[in-house]
UniProtKB/TrEMBL annotation:
Compartments in which it is found: Mitochondrion
Chief location: mitochondrion
Keyword annotations from UniProtKB, A to Z: Membrane, Mitochondrion, Transferase, Transit peptide, Transmembrane, Transmembrane helix
Family note: Belongs to the AIM9 family.
Protein name (Swiss-Prot/TrEMBL): Altered inheritance of mitochondria protein 9, mitochondrial
Top-level taxon in the UniProt lineage: Eukaryota
Biased composition (Basic and acidic residues): 562-571
Lineage: Eukaryota, Fungi, Dikarya, Ascomycota, Pezizomycotina
Membrane-spanning parts: 485-509, 515-536
SUPFAM superfamilies in the record: Protein kinase-like (PK-like)
Amino acid sequence: MMDSLGDSPDPYRYTSGRWLRRDALERESRFIRFNFDALCCKVLELCPGASSVTSYDKKEGGFNRVFIFHTDNAKRIVARLPFALAGVSRLTTNSEVATIKYLQAETGIPIPKILDWSDDASNAIGSEYIIMEHASGISLHEKWPTMDVSDQIRCIEAICQKLKEIVDLNFPAYGSLYFAETPYLPTSKLLLNREFCIGPHCGAMYWNCNVGQPRYYHDTRPNQGPWLKIADYCDGLIDTGISKIPPAGSVSKRPRYHGSIETHKKLLYYGRAMLKEMAKSSQIQNAATPVMFHPDLHKRNIFVSEEDPTVVSAIIDWQSTSIEPAFWYADAIPDFAQPVSDPSSEDKIEPKSEACAKAYDFCIQFLAPKLSVARSMEEAYLRPFRYCYRTWEDGAVAFREELIQTSQHWKELGFAVQSPFPLPCPDEITVHQKEYRLFEAAQQLRHSLSSLLNTASDGWVPLQDWEGTESAHWEVFEGMLQEKVVVQAFGLLAGSAGSAGALALTPIARDPHLVAFYASLTAVIPAVTVAFWLAFHKYDAEASAAERDACRGDVAGYQEQTESRARRHSADSAPKLDPVDTGRPLSFAVP
């Protein structure tokens, strides 16, 4: 039934890369114990005329393992098995299949045919799975670089025409699609017709399946929907945020801006009141129409004709598709519409990418009015929605900033009642602003340094680059711990009292806040020294000239050394991408 596959990739273990942080836990969460021979036999059953599997390719993303099987009758069959962190068991697979079947029935969007599927891991294969025909055409990711700008724009228009069919669908609630006769769905499901229903949101953000992010339900109940009204949807966001707050006594040291357990609970209390009040407004309700959209729209998930790349032949990866308020999708920009910086250009944007960005914006405006309404809204309306469900990951300061900004513009936004969030007093604002500068510095450091060493934002490194990157990580980490500049830079960033000289004499290990903040950066990116001077110089304007001068020379020297290391470890390497086309982009969060 199968040719010798002795040299083929390991089907069970994650082998595409390693993580600079929580490596063992990340890889363990992507291990799948299943019967590979049974999967091969199932593929042959579904491929008439095939008697053996001649080879297979293994592709791994953030949430799935994909096998592309090649059979002896020259066919290609795709089997995808979800990792445990992809979402809640059974629901995630059931919802994806139901969504695809629904879209194939209600729209003309080209999606590969599903040959077989199972949402029950007790099957003969030993894992949930979806087996599909291979997408026709060629990946847009492969074709895009060779297309001229006119073809790129025509391709964008064709993609948006397909997406218009989804956006035009009408739904009575927020949540995820399922088959109506699914026996394990809660009674709160809402029937769409005899075959499909809206049930709980299957997205991982609502469930206890994220690596290193357990859920706690001592202060709130699970709230995964479905939700009939936008106010109920807002409760789901707030309850999700509360469920991430651990019990007292179980919290490790965090950066200063992170905030205490009580601070998080208090902010989410005010956040719930603010979102409920905002949900009453016509502006929010007009932008909160229940909308379905592709959850991970980028070039790797779009296939086009090899002969004419302006013809879309398939759109794949519908895992975790959900029905959200229109404003949830309004600002999502796919990679083919992202402006690319070009310092040599007059407006500092690469002309082709600028044209594509404008084309996408124009198409969404006129082809998807539900999204267009939300895209035209004042930004302050949507601020509180951004961080409320992830305050424990980002730090309390981020959500507090959104509450402050919205409250300051409350009357301008047209709300008649008083803002439910009382603005802090001047002294509290001063403390908050310092913490927020530190939060911004942490994010900028991690983003810029991630780019410098070509790692993913969560510390993911392609396997072929692992040894060099890990070596650089520890080399710089150990060197920085011995230098005064580290303590000086962190002291200024954190707004610590005392002169630079006093800070220089204070070992970093004596301040757990500095250790936590330092670890949150170096655990992801080793070359932190590159941006130290820029970070504290830009974000702590209150630091004296003498304090800045005290660090400038040492940091400049380390910057030169670090850039040299970075060039050595990234030379001859192609730009690194997050794991390909089988899962959502790896999300950024400051620990």
